[in-house]
Amino acid sequence: MTDMQWGIFTVGDVTRDPTTGRTPSEAERIQDTVTIARKVEEVGLDVFATGEHHNPPFVPSSPTTLLGHIAALTERIILSTSTTLITTNDPVKIAEDFSVLQHLSAGRTDVMLGRGNTGPVYPWFGQDIRQALPLSVEHYGLLRRLWREEVVDWEGKLRSPLQGFTLAPRPLDGVPPFVWHASIRTPEVAELAAYYGDGFFANHIFWPSSHTQKMVELYRRRFAHYGHGTPTEAIVGLGGQVFMRRNSQDAVDEFRPYFDNAPVYGHGPSLEEFTSMTPLTVGSPAQVIEKTLGFRDYVGDYQRQLFLIDHAGLPLKTVLEQLDLLGEEVVPVLRKEFAIGRPAGVPAAPTHQSLLRARAASEAATPDATPTEGLTKQ
Amino acid sequence: MTELAVISGGLREPSSTRLLAERLEASVRKELGTLDIAAGSSFVELRPLGHPIIDAMITGFAAPALEEAFETVAEADGVIAVTPAFNASFSGLFKSFFDVLPEETLSDMPVLIGATGGTERHSLVLEHALRPMFSYLHAIVSPRGVYAATEDFGAPAQEGSALGRRITAAAADYARLVQGCGSHQRRDAFTEELTSMEQLLGGSDGESRR
Prior knowledge:
The complex is a heterodimer. By secondary structure, chain A is α/β, with parallel strands linked by helices. Chain A has 13 helices and 13 strands. Chain A has helices spanning 26-42, 63-73, 91-104, 121-124, 132-148, 187-196, 209-225, 248-260, 271-277, 285-293, 295-299, 316-339, 352-365; strands spanning 5-10, 47-50, 78-81, 84-85, 110-114, 152-154, 162-165, 178-183, 199-202, 236-238, 242-244, 281-283, 304-307. In chain A, α1 (26-42) packs across α2 (63-73), α1 (26-42) packs parallel to α12 and α2 runs parallel beside α3. The two termini of chain A are 23 Å apart. Chain B is α/β, with parallel strands linked by helices. In chain B, 45% of the residues lie in helices and 19% in strands. In chain B, strands 1, 2, 3, 4, 5, 6 and 7 form a seven-stranded mixed beta sheet that branches. In chain B, α1 packs across α6 and α2 (50-59) packs across α4 (92-100). The chains are: A alpha/beta, B alpha/beta.
């Protein structure tokens, strides 16, 4: 059993390489993304997740199409998102897309839900950004029912009602994909995750670790408050951002132009300032190991770690080299080190198999529960 | 203890903006004293925060030094804000500080406004730039602000310096305002967001949770 899952998440930006001036085509970027995902499996990591965006310079507007293709080319890795927009996507379509993906990937699917913070995307999809919070709550409430109840009668405020609707295909083995709720900043998302006993994923890239600590603490406390277990039994994922070379100074020199021109934080703080304020690590594999091991000091033992490694115009070759280092030198050490001293009560990272086992166990514990597939409320 | 945060947007050393801020601070404390209110004060100089302010605009989070300035303002019971007048308005740096200051920090905050400039022709910057911005931020702006032109600093004190009289009058108004407002209740956006989410979830369609 893997206690912790290791992987990468991509934003899917098409960005000019500031060192060569070359911008890849959209076709190239999409194919590169597939190559990166296959490499994730090859080097022994566990998860590949893609963002969802609906405007240039980003390419992943249709994540389950991309992940369905990757599912056919891989055998082991979990395919996920970072994030799927629960506000602007129709929950019925999310349920359908991820059900199909779940079947195609033989259960190697989970989903990370987020609100999305690009203003115009809301009107493009007929929604109102001022309703982001009610949309998240209502859409997710419906999504859960579609995955858990055979026949759904539903009426809400923000979507047309459903009468006698049955999701097809039903989730694989009657078990919905595991859901993570992801946030950069907002406590509401931690509350939503805690309310339903779902996973909480802290972006952990753009903001200082003190903020991540506050959010994860809140999520763990509220998870227990809503009766899903103890705070240590909550399911936590973290983002992170690394750039490595064997020699630390080489990493700094090579990464600096990408950092300085990065779309999100470029032309702001220096690489050194950003490294000291946020979880970004630029240096040797040993430095990445050391910094990553420090994450659990402020969030507790957790379940999933995803790194961002393919943005800001970094060329494919460099990204694949990062994956080699992660797979060969970094993650094997981190797996061992994180296993040491991990308290017995900390759950392993959720998988389709672990959810199946949990369901079997809960059915064995309550023999009068209706075992009919798809009808069981969880 | 009433805590004052004094924000000075002056760029030079020595700075006439800082000088006006200091005189306002001293006068306000004196006026508060006559009302039997003990006051402490902390200065927030914007010039050394210039880079962190722009970085915060770009990254969305504040570096430790800027975070400390935000805390000083958020913990205060009153704010004295003074800027140089640039191009018919407050300085860009002064505005930028309030652009990155966390929302609602100044809600219900008594604010005394001040500005400096080369000539007295710019004095309406108080009414046309500072007052509307602080009103927008839901601060309670004291009725009398103080504008000091370069010339004001040269006027002999014994002639009952006009600037000194304006400072005293503004400080007296502001002290009464601070007294009336009492201790400032800090808004906690984190908890407010959480509470609204809790209510929203409580009112969702009642599906049983796991």
